[in-house]
């Protein structure tokens, strides 16, 4: 809560990207870690949320020779409808997901990314085409989460602009999404999904409606992705189609693998690592050994970040398949035992 009072806009923008990645990664972790359904099309549902909010909240306008449609709905209503739209897209795909498993489901979901890219680049009235379109600012109860021209809000002597306001919005949404996901995982639906993941046939024999739970998992996962897409759009301020391609889908997969497939907290930690590392490396490329600043010869920060992701995934799969969440649990267990021994003394 106190972070915006002490850090500059760079770290706040980075935090907003981490919040957006965490919300979407929670959905993929629920689908992959709990239900055992591999999805390589998560970026498609993120794009539905991002462009859905933009279209629903933006006003109809003409930019140059192109026309951009918009419904000019209240931002809160646009967020809700965008999340529901992403969920509807997941529900439409769920009959396919209910009949496929493993790599077959992964390849089928990968097709969504290519379909989405084709639509985003060609339906210019909705998406702005190759150049994308601006994202309307978010407003809640008359409070604007963007900079207001001519007005500066000060909190404890610190000017609060767009980044500071969006930090609290992202923090609140991520906290609610995390608690909701954790409660779902610990409850009866989570046990049913894990039963389907481990032994689908036995789960059906025990009375678990397998097809319905698979559809529900894809529905909820898509809604999380749509909400993450809304946060991502607000963080960028302007969205372009190439952002939501195959690279983003792989990044979400890396988030849940690095953080821990079956852990909501691990998904948040993995999202923070994957979302923040490239920007941090780029900011400090001039002082980090082996990295070349933008425009210079050598290993760029983006390439170094990809090497780091790959190394982290390989190392975790070899030494700790449970990911960062398992490492954190082990450290907590050791610290608890050490504290217990200290108290006994």
UniProtKB/TrEMBL annotation:
<keyword id="KW-1003">Cell membrane</keyword>
<dbReference type="InterPro" id="IPR043428">
    <property type="entry name" value="LivM-like"/>
</dbReference>
<feature type="transmembrane region" description="Helical">
    <location>
        <begin position="103"/>
        <end position="121"/>
    </location>
</feature>
<feature type="transmembrane region" description="Helical">
    <location>
        <begin position="12"/>
        <end position="32"/>
    </location>
</feature>
<protein>
    <submittedName>
        <fullName>Branched-chain amino acid transport system permease protein</fullName>
    </submittedName>
</protein>
<feature type="transmembrane region" description="Helical">
    <location>
        <begin position="39"/>
        <end position="56"/>
    </location>
</feature>
<feature type="transmembrane region" description="Helical">
    <location>
        <begin position="76"/>
        <end position="96"/>
    </location>
</feature>
<keyword id="KW-0472">Membrane</keyword>
<keyword id="KW-0812">Transmembrane</keyword>
<feature type="transmembrane region" description="Helical">
    <location>
        <begin position="284"/>
        <end position="303"/>
    </location>
</feature>
<dbReference type="InterPro" id="IPR001851">
    <property type="entry name" value="ABC_transp_permease"/>
</dbReference>
<feature type="transmembrane region" description="Helical">
    <location>
        <begin position="166"/>
        <end position="185"/>
    </location>
</feature>
<dbReference type="GO" id="GO:0015658">
    <property type="term" value="F:branched-chain amino acid transmembrane transporter activity"/>
</dbReference>
<keyword id="KW-1133">Transmembrane helix</keyword>
<feature type="transmembrane region" description="Helical">
    <location>
        <begin position="309"/>
        <end position="331"/>
    </location>
</feature>
<feature type="transmembrane region" description="Helical">
    <location>
        <begin position="217"/>
        <end position="240"/>
    </location>
</feature>
<dbReference type="Pfam" id="PF02653">
    <property type="entry name" value="BPD_transp_2"/>
</dbReference>
<dbReference type="GO" id="GO:0005886">
    <property type="term" value="C:plasma membrane"/>
</dbReference>
<feature type="transmembrane region" description="Helical">
    <location>
        <begin position="252"/>
        <end position="277"/>
    </location>
</feature>
């Amino acid at each position: 809560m106190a972070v915006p009072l002490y850090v500059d806009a760079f770290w706040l923008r980075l935090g907003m990207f981490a919040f957006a990645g965490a919300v979407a990664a929670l959905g993929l972790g629920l689908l992959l870690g709990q239900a055992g359904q591999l999805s390589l099309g998560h970026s498609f549902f993120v794009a539905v949320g991002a462009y859905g909010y933009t279209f629903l909240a933006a006003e109809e306008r003409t930019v140059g020779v192109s026309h951009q449609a918009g419904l000019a709905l209240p931002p809160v209503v646009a967020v809700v409808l965008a999340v529901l739209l992403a969920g509807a897209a997941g529900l439409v795909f769920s009959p396919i997901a209910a009949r496929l498993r493993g790599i077959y489901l992964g390849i089928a979901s990968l097709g969504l990314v290519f379909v989405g890219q084709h639509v985003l680049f060609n339906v210019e009235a909705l998406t702005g085409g190759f150049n994308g379109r601006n994202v309307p600012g978010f407003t809640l109860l008359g409070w604007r989460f963007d900079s207001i021209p001519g007005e500066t809000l000060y909190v404890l002597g610190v000017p609060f602009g767009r980044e500071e306001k969006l930090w609290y919005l992202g923090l609140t949404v991520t906290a609610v999404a995390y608690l909701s996901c954790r409660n779902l995982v610990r409850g009866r639906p989570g046990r049913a999904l894990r039963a389907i993941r481990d032994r689908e046939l036995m789960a059906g024999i025990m009375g678990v409606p397998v097809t319905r739970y698979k559809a529900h998992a894809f529905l909820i996962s898509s809604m999380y992705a749509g909400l993450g897409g809304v946060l991502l759009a607000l963080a960028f301020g302007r969205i372009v189609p190439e952002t939501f391609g195959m690279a983003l889908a792989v990044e979400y997969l890396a988030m849940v693998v690095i953080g821990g497939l079956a852990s909501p907290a691990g998904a948040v930690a993995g999202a923070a690592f994957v979302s923040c590392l490239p920007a941090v490396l780029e900011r400090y490329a001039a002082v980090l050994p082996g990295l070349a600043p933008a425009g210079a010869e050598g290993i760029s920060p983006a390439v170094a970040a990809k090497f780091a992701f790959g190394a982290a995934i390989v190392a975790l799969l070899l030494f700790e398949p449970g990911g960062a969440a398992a490492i954190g649990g082990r450290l907590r267990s050791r610290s608890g035992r050490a504290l217990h021994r200290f108290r006994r003394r």
